[in-house]
Design brief:
alpha/beta; disordered C terminus; 16 helices
Length: about 400
């Protein structure tokens, strides 16, 4: 499963599931949105995770299950078990890792050759069972794990079977790091490894130091509020609560807003979570219109919130919005609206989705180099960016 296909499913309601295995992580990256650390032990109960994934069926399942954390590969046996269970129902699995296991450098080969190189044998066995693997890489990760070790590990992992990609973050479109690292990725892998490029947000550890990720000249040209694709995939949080979106405040704060709570691993299965995801009139309209437009429709005199996510969380205290959504989007008509908007957004492709949610000039990097559309090349602060020959946008 290539990165572009994974991203392309993101606007489709219940097409995917984000499943956090643990908040623990051996790294201490300064920008970590989840505040993960080596001493953190918060995690869903593994038996409940296994039971929930076992509830997938051939006719009722997510297309893709994304395993994340913290660091999911601290639990390689659980990764392998969940992936095998999901695959039996027809669900593909993707894993996102901070690459802690690559820090040790080259390992001596065992008698059988298994696990030789950078990647421990237990991790390599787990990743051989998944369909996509993505490695996090940025200035903060590189202080913990050298870039050369990440590249070497990606080569080993790709040889084990899954498609691979990189998940990059930077300070904005002009960040020279992004220009340098995308150039290095294309050079190292001959343009065959794609990357999802995001901007550092002021959440988690970065809340104390990160400013607005997008410079003023980019904010001025930003798209108007749009349908929210981030309310499409259910998210299993660290305490086993199943939520309607991946916003970090929703994931971390309890109680979560009722309209964004889909259930809990202790007493709900996939069928129940999927039904609530698809059946909520309020979630349908958040996905179809966006929270700001929904608030303006039903509370036109209310002051707008600071962001679409703040607006959406605030609906917990605005029953008029839920009542209006129920009147507008209940029943088959609401379901058709939800599906139509999702299909139209998916048809625009993964590049357009990343232009909206990620670092816009680097959106074409979700495709391999040979498939990227032509266009302007982002420049680093030094004025140097990827050349057209190396990385055509």
């Amino acid at each position: 499963m290539e990165l572009a296909e994974l991203i392309g499913l993101r606007p489709v309601p219940a097409a995917g599931l984000l499943l956090t295995l643990t908040r623990q992580c051996p790294l201490r990256c300064a920008h970590c949105s989840t505040g993960s650390a080596p001493e953190t032990r918060e995690r869903p109960e593994p038996g409940l995770l296994r039971r929930f994934v076992a509830s997938f069926g051939p006719d009722d399942r997510p297309e893709v299950m994304m395993l994340t954390g913290g660091e999911p590969l601290l639990l390689p046996r659980l990764v392998a078990d969940l992936s095998a269970s999901a695959r039996a129902a027809g669900t593909r699995t993707a894993v996102l890792s901070g690459m802690f296991f690559a820090r040790a450098g080259t390992r001596p080969a065992s008698a059988s050759g298994a696990g030789s190189g950078v990647v421990p044998a237990s991790v390599l066995r787990a990743l051989a069972s998944v369909d996509h693997f993505s490695a996090s890489l940025d200035v903060h990760h590189e202080r913990e794990v050298p870039r050369s070790a990440v590249f070497r590990a990606l080569r080993e992992i790709r040889e084990a079977g899954p498609a691979v990609s990189l998940h990059l973050t930077g300070d904005g479109p002009d960040d020279p790091y992004l220009a340098d690292v995308t150039r290095a990725i294309d050079r190292e892998f001959d343009g065959t490894v794609p990357a999802l490029v995001n901007e550092v947000r002021a959440v988690g550890r970065a809340a104390s130091w990160a400013g607005p990720a997008r410079p003023a000249r980019y904010r001025a040209a930003a798209a108007p509020p749009a349908p929210c694709a981030m309310a499409a995939w259910p998210v299993v949080a660290f305490d086993g609560t199943v939520l309607a979106c991946c916003n970090q405040e929703v994931v971390d704060r309890r109680p979560a807003p009722a309209h964004l709570t889909l259930g809990h691993l202790a007493h709900d299965d996939w069928a129940a979570v999927r039904a609530r995801t698809l059946g909520s009139p309020l979630l349908r309209l958040v996905r179809a219109m966006g929270a700001p437009a929904l608030r303006e429709r039903h509370l036109p005199d209310a002051a707008p919130a600071a962001s679409p996510c703040t607006e959406c969380r605030g609906f917990a205290d605005r029953p008029e919005v839920a009542a209006g959504a129920a009147a507008d989007a209940s029943g088959p008509a609401g379901a058709l609206l939800d599906l139509t908007v999702a299909r139209r957004r998916a048809e625009r492709g993964p590049v357009e989705l990343v232009r909206h949610y990620g670092c816009a000039p680097y959106a074409p990097w979700v495709l391999p180099r040979t498939s990227r559309p032509a266009g302007p090349v982002p420049l680093g602060a030094s004025g140097q960016g990827p050349t057209t020959a190396e990385a055509s946008l």
